[in-house]
Write a structure and sequence with these properties.
alpha+beta; 6-stranded mixed β-sheet; 6 helices
């Protein structure tokens, strides 16, 4: 098989003559798989919202050799990321010889009973020996179990999970781990991204909902504080406070002395305290 890492455009071969389909008509394993792919992509977009130098794809064909393309040997990882490229350009497939020989830096396969042996066998070997992808993860939702490897001296070395069972991705600068909850009205265990501090990395919709909830909680406190004027001069006894005011029953009255500020409305010395 021709490896385009060493020969991006072989002499005498016209890659433009190749027909490169972007789909094969084979449906995804389940609705969960479809949602999970988009969840990972959207989470990464939020995580790297200040960056434009990467491309994230899901269930997208990767073409890496003339032989593969002629044989219709389609290879489409469930999720992959390529860094150091123009992320603003739309692509129907990842065509290595049109991307200066660039392969994915990270690949995640979402396993199922019908794919688990291929994911851990043939695909793992392909990503290690041909793609030379730096990090490869395989998540089995039936477990759930998350496995990961990092390329070291040309060979994959298994990554060790933390106490939560998460695996750290240096390429994504994030943890990968299971999360139990509802997403798009589906209550399931999802594979999610977590920040280095352990906080869940949201998608845009989740971040906006959290921001709105925070603002709603702050609104009553801000409203109450708007009706209360601080009076720092109350710290010093018997000091006249011409600038301070109190509000009682809709009336605003100046407070002359600290003693009067401590009394309820009425005559000074009534013995009642003024509680705001």
């Amino acid at each position: 098989m021709l490896d385009l890492r060493t020969e991006a455009r072989p002499v005498g071969f016209d890659f433009m003559m190749l027909e490169l389909p972007t789909e094969d008509g084979v449906p995804l394993e389940s609705n969960w798989h479809r949602i999970e792919m988009n969840l990972l992509i959207d989470s990464l977009h939020y995580h790297w919202r200040q960056r434009t130098d990467y491309f994230a794809g899901g269930n997208m064909f990767i073409y890496f050799s003339a032989e593969q393309a002629r044989n219709r040997d389609y290879r489409g990882p469930d999720f992959f990321v390529v860094t150091g490229v123009d992320g603003s350009r739309d692509r129907g497939a990842w065509i290595v010889w049109e991307e200066n020989g660039r392969y994915p830096n990270v690949i995640i396969e979402l396993a199922s009973p019908s794919t688990i042996h291929t994911d851990l066998g043939f695909k793992k070997d392909l990503y290690e020996r041909v793609f030379r992808t730096t990090e490869y993860f395989c998540y089995d939702p039936g477990g759930p179990e998350l496995l990961g490897w990092s390329l070291d001296a040309g060979e994959y070395r298994a990554l060790k999970p933390n106490a939560h069972g998460w695996l750290w991705s240096h390429e994504l600068d994030a943890w990968l781990g299971a999360w139990q909850g509802e997403f798009l009205r589906l209550q399931q265990t999802w594979l999610r991204l977590y920040g280095s501090d352990g906080a869940l990395i949201p998608v845009v919709g989740e971040a906006e909902a959290q921001r709105a909830a925070t603002e709603a909680q702050r609104a009553p406190r801000l409203k109450r504080s708007a009706h209360t004027k601080p009076c720092s001069a109350l710290r010093w006894p018997r000091q006249r406070l011409p600038a301070c005011e109190r509000s009682w029953q809709g009336k605003t009255e100046p407070i002359a002395t600290v003693e009067q500020a401590r009394l309820m409305p009425g005559q000074a010395g009534s013995g009642r305290t003024w509680a705001r």
